[in-house]
Amino acid sequence: MKAKAAYTVIFRATLDHLDDDYVQMAANLRQLAMEKYGCLDFISFSAGGQEVAISYWQSMEHIRSWSRDPVHRQAKERACDSWYHSWQLQICKIESSRYSDQI
Q1: Which CATH class is domain 7-93?
Q2: In the chain, where are the structural domains located?
């Protein structure tokens, strides 16, 4: 990350039915969040029918703008209808951060 993150968004979902549209939408959303809305970093992984995505942001304003994006809103609707059985979102303020250059 080039800029210092102040907030992280943790998204967890129980997967229902993923298809090729999901894979393409996820890639498009990541690119959009980073290029247009100032997402600083984004990582995701899945195992055992669960998906976790963690994104890093400079401000709540950036997060709010991203949440209102029309493409993002459309993806959220489709996810609730087709891709996810259930989901959880947490927004956390980063109080302290330590790291190694090897990450």
Answers
A1: alpha beta
A2: 7-93
Look at the alpha carbons of 93, 97, 99, 101 in this order and tell me if their dihedral is positive or negative.
positive
Using CA of residue 94, residue 66, residue 43, residue 49, what is the dihedral sign? positive
Cβ partners under 8 Å of residue 44, min gap 6 = 26, 51, 52, 53, 54
Question: pLDDT digit string (tens) for 69-85?
Answer: 999 999 999 888 889 99
Q: CA–CA separation, 79 vs 77, rounded Å? A: 5
Backbone angles phi and psi of 74, in degrees to 5 = -65, -40
CB 75 within 8 A of CB 29: yes
For the entire predicted model, the pTM comes to 0.86
